[in-house]
Every structure is written in structure tokens, then in C-alpha cells.
Amino acid sequence: SSPQTTASKPSATVRRGAHTVPARVVPRLIPPANAPLHSVTVPVLTFHRVAALPPGASALTTDLTVDPANFAAELAALHSGGYHPISQAQLFDALYRGRALPPRPLIISVDDGYVDDVKTILPALKRWHFVATFFVITGRFSIPGFMNADQVRQLDRAGMDVGDHTAHHVDLRLLTPSELTSETRGSRRVLQRTLGHFVYVFAYPFGAHNDAVISAVRRAGFTMAYTTIGGTSESTAAPLTMPRLHIGRAVTPSGLVS
Q1: Is the CB of residue 113 less than 8 Å from the CB of residue 148?
Q2: Which of 244, 243, 211, 238 is nearest to 31 (CA)?
Q3: Are 127 and 75 in contact (CB under 8 A)?
Q4: Separation CA 180–CA 222 (nearest Å)
Q5: Where are the alpha helices (DSSP H) in 15-148?
Q6: What would the pLDDT profile of 114-137 be if each residue is shown by its tens digit?
Q7: Given the DSSP bridges, would you call strands 65-66 and 49-50 parallel, antiparallel or unpaired?
Q8: Is residue 107 within 8 Å of residue 85, measured between CB atoms?
């Protein structure tokens, strides 16, 4: 069945306090039947946190936490290097409609939905008029340190892409079928109600997936999904297992564009 029949219909407006906010208009990213095999080279850079490193941070937290000054310098290096961050719709159009991409296209993606996304990352992106994709965890909207629903809408209304990163960021391979449905289809419904429009892109927690997980993501209505597998070639042959490049704390601005 199509994405429209596997998810609840988003509302045309979103309630924010006493005000009604018009929903952002987004294109329908639904692949045509029997789409021809086509691939494009688009590096998808993956960030997590952009913040000061907390005292006593573990090795994993250290790697996932990029210094704000270094992140700003990385964006400046991308701009100086002639790279053009693109949206998910641009990637979809290039893959399925043969539309041209700008020179040196790439996607900036940010996982997990930390409050850094609106406090630090969004202002840095705006400086260069860059677009990015934020994969948020819908079950963390009320947890301190993560974005709440209003802040997620702020990203969306600023022209950023917002994708789904499940409800609770668990290894989907370990779930029962009903739990898997809740973490994919259920989370998508929550995010669509939050934004007021369809959501088509997904990122696997920890990059973990298998055939059952991929099938659940497809049934939930997502048409593009990202792993943690390294690579820069995105293809219509595997739209639900798209590769990305991890950008950790040790990456330098010059190393990012080399």
C-alpha cells in the first residue's frame, strides 16, 4: 500500500498554545512504480551533538559531541569549498525524476533531537543559508536536553527537513512485531501530527536493521531510510538502506572537505 494509506492523515494546521500555525507545505516523496535503477553521488554527513563537552564524558559521548567552534568552521569550509547542502526533496527528485543537482551536493544530517539543534546548529546553518535534515526521537519531546514539540516545529518552519528516528531509540531488530510497528508507524504518526504534514525519511537507531525492520519501515510509509553504513552513492535500488558518513569530534574542517 502507498504511504498515504499506511499513516494517519496529518492535519492542515498545528496548535501551538492559543495560536494556530499553518502547516509547512512539503512535496510528496512517493516513488513511482517500477522506478528505473538510478544512483547519484551525494555524501550524507551525520552529526549528533554540537555542544561543550561535559566533564567526565565517555569515549562515545566525546566522539559524538562536536565543538561548536569547530562545527562553525566546518560549515564555513563547506561553503568555501563550493559544496551545496541539499534537501531530501532534491535528492528524491534527482533519484526518481532525473532532476539536476547543484555542484558538489551533500546532505547535512543531525541525529537524536538534542536541544543543540535549535540553539546552536540552526543559527550556524542560517549563516550560510544551508539546509539540513534532523532525525528526531518522538518519545523524548518531554525529556530535558532534547527538543520539545515546539522546537521541532521551529526547525521545520525554518525550512529544515525533519525525519523520524523512532519513538525510543532502541535496536529495532530486538523488538516484537507490535513493538516494531509502534516504533516506526506509531512514531511517524506522532511526528506528522506534530508538524502537520507527511514525513517520508527515517534513520535507523544505531544503524541497526534487518529484513524484518526494513519491511516495517516500508509498511510505515517511509520512502527513504538511512543507515550508518559508510558510502556516498544513493540509489533507487536501495532507498531504505542509504549510506551516510559519520562526522565525529576529531574531524577537522580541512579533513571534512578533503
Answers
A1: no
A2: 238
A3: yes
A4: 14
A5: 59-64, 68-80, 88-96, 116, 122-128
A6: 999 999 999 999 999 999 999 999
A7: parallel
A8: yes
